[in-house]
Amino acid sequence: MRTFTEFFGFYQDPFKRTPDVDFYYPTQMHIEALDTLQYLIHSDEPFAVLTGEPGTGKTITIKKFINELPSNIVSAYILFPNLTPEELFMAILEDFNIHVDKSLTKNALFAKLRDFLIEIGSEGKKAVIIIDEAQNLPNETLEELRLLSNLETEKDKLLKIILAGQPELDEKLNEESLRQLKQRVTLYVKLDNIKQEDIKNYIYSHLEKAGKSYVKIHSGVVKRIAKITKGNPRLINTLMERTIIAAFLDNSHTINENHLISALSSVNNVMATVHKKKSGKAKHTVIAAVIGCLALLVGFLGADKIFNLKTEKPAAQIAVNTYTPQAAENTAPAKEYTENALNNNDIYTDITAETVENNAALVPDNQETANITEQYAANNTNQHTENIQIIQTTPYVPTVSQDVNNIYQAEEQPVIEEPEPVVNRPKDVYILADSLNVRAIPSLESARIASATVGQKYEYVSENENWVQIQISPILTGWVFKQYVSISERP
């Protein structure tokens, strides 16, 4: 069974969720950000600050910057910076390929880093430290970075520091305790959503770089994605990836608006876990999120097509499920969880085996990890995950525009309710996870009898609350987790 990348003739997924420099799209804003970071290297400035909302391209800009550093610049890239000063110094030294004894004190680590900088300075080299998600750095650690930036020779500074993060980083730097650090920062870069006129080129650039050969997109799809996402690259990638999968499940090389509607349905399922930031405004409830989801579909289909489904058969729906780490860990009552879930502005998108592969350095690739994952799923009945290693990350997906009702206006038509005879049509089961265990019986304790991969199609046999039974061969059936498959009736 072909995957969707093979179906469309792609060499790789054109809309990856992890930043890939090969897919860097140079808008004017991102070019200016990159130029500013490169200027830092050749200037006397010690600090640069890069901020932007999640999904606007900070990390891919940083990776592009690192890839283009000249040979006389050595770099350390720190991605998880919620560290004490000792932990940060140790992480920096290790990224510079310097082995350190974990028992060393902060002063000893500082001295070791100082000696390294002096050594490379004598060789005509400089060092740059890039800290991503720097809004999570404790104030004490930020102050140590300021002291570290004081290291210099008679001719030049030995170290450049780039702090990248969400807008909360600006708020942190405005705190009184960090005023001395802020005085040293003279280079500020802010990234925003890409302009509407750049979105079409952004989408087609990704398709071309992935090896586009068998795909066409209706112009209306691009326009609607532009309006819904407001130009946020991460949400563009999310919608485009799921729209392409919807077209694949529909066996269509042309992506149309029905496929986008299917993708929106899966994104709206994710919106049930939207976490609003704390503010003076009234908190929204999950009901409001559901109403927003309905408004999206009404805006695309028209009310008559929403409530009289027999008038038009939509494209195959994608049953893309989500795993929410905080939700799984939270054992409080549902009402309390709902209130907690609205405290910040993040959306946890689904985590598949592809995500694990893209973060292989973070997750040990062994059977023990897989066993722990399955046990974790067994203890959290609301969020089952089979054969998928769990990374507790919080990728951000911006809130979908509430103005989508103006996108697509359908004429109102009278709805005629007519009973339809019940017909038990054969069904097919499509695998949505990159790798999914097939069990002998619907239980995590059952033996694994096969492994299914994304895009494979199996004949539907039966299902229960959490599992689906599939026909593996003419004489063998097995069970897979329902939340990682899509079930479609045959015509």
From TrEMBL:
MF annotations from Gene Ontology: ATP hydrolysis activity
SMART domains in UniProt: AAA, SH3b
Entries under Pfam families matching the protein: AAA_22, SH3_3
Signal sequence region: none
Protein name (database record): Uncharacterized protein
Organism the protein comes from: Mucispirillum schaedleri ASF457
